[in-house]
Amino acid sequence: MYALDIVCKLLLYYEDFFSIPYPLKKLDIFAVPELRVLAMENWGLIMVRQKLVVYNPHMNSLRERRVVTDVLAHEVAHMWFGNLVTMRWWNDLWLNEGFATMMAPKAADHAENSTLRTTQYFTADVALKALSSDQHLRTTQPISLKKNSDRVHGQDSRILYNKGATVLRMVESTIGVNVFRRGLNPYLLKFAYSNADKNDFLASFALIFDESECREDAFVPSNFTVSDFIDSWIYQPGFPLLEVHRTTEHFEISQTIFDADGNTVFANLQWKVPIFLGRGDKRSIIWLRENETVMLHDENRPFLIDIDAHGYYRVLYDGETWNDII
């Protein structure tokens, strides 16, 4: 059966990725004909909507195969991130679901030997859906709510899952893939069979990141902390619009909140923004802090911001710059 074969491969992938063996003696996959959600990650017993389990590669489409693999990869990730270590309170649900959503395409590509190239769909399947929901400030919300908030049970899953995943991928791209991965193991070991929160999660990265060889690999300033960087992204609604303007001497990059509805209530919100610059094959990161403007000098050739779609923001170029790009 396709689903069973994939789950076995996913287990091996996550055991290697986290450097922690699957802690239970077995993992059952239970097909439920009328399950309200696609799947549920009970520890040791993943419940899956029946049509996903009975997938037949000779009858179903490649797109359906990708959905099956991605859903199963998401649920298996929860065996460690959500079950082995569980959030302390519902305000950190974004961390559990965002992490599983971010990891699923990586695990799916590994299990399928990259046949599906699921990671290439992350921007369309995850990031753009989050941006679409988050651009309407009258209805959106931060991905992390205050404890005991009366909105805990009414949170938008597109914000929790998709924005959470995109923000975490932005963190991974900023501090480096190796640093991000190395920070997961001590976190999972320290809080195994117990509860943790966002601060516990970020503290594990701080320990790894402070090692000199890690700091040298990342495009971050010397006084950088992961917690200081991520707070504005999880406690504020919406996302920034980066505006690029060319002068006679340099380029200026500033930020304002993106609001499709023109609401001025949140007009003063600002973020610590990692600007991913691309020119040809070269990549670099510069930082745009709250209420500041970044100036780029000697930029005679066209450049693109966030060419690999690792940031959680939109970009607006002035007319002259955009004409040079296209």
Automatic annotation (TrEMBL):
Residues annotated as domain Peptidase M1 membrane alanine aminopeptidase: 2-233
UniProt organism field: Parascaris univalens (Nematode worm)
GO cellular component: cytoplasm; extracellular space; membrane
Keyword Metal-binding: yes
Family per similarity comment: Belongs to the peptidase M1 family.
Source organism, top-level taxon: Eukaryota
Cofactors, names only: Zn(2+)
Gene Ontology biological process terms from the UniProt entry: peptide catabolic process; proteolysis
Name by which UniProt lists this protein: Peptidase M1 membrane alanine aminopeptidase domain-containing protein
Gene3D superfamilies to which the protein is assigned, alphabetical: 2.60.40.1910, Neutral Protease Domain 2
Gene Ontology molecular function: metalloaminopeptidase activity; peptide binding; zinc ion binding
Database matches in InterPro entries: Peptidase_M1, Peptidase_M1_aminopeptidases, Peptidase_M1_dom, Peptidase_M4/M1_CTD_sf
Keyword field contains tRNA processing: no
Keywords assigned by UniProt, alphabetized: Aminopeptidase, Hydrolase, Metal-binding, Metalloprotease, Protease, Zinc
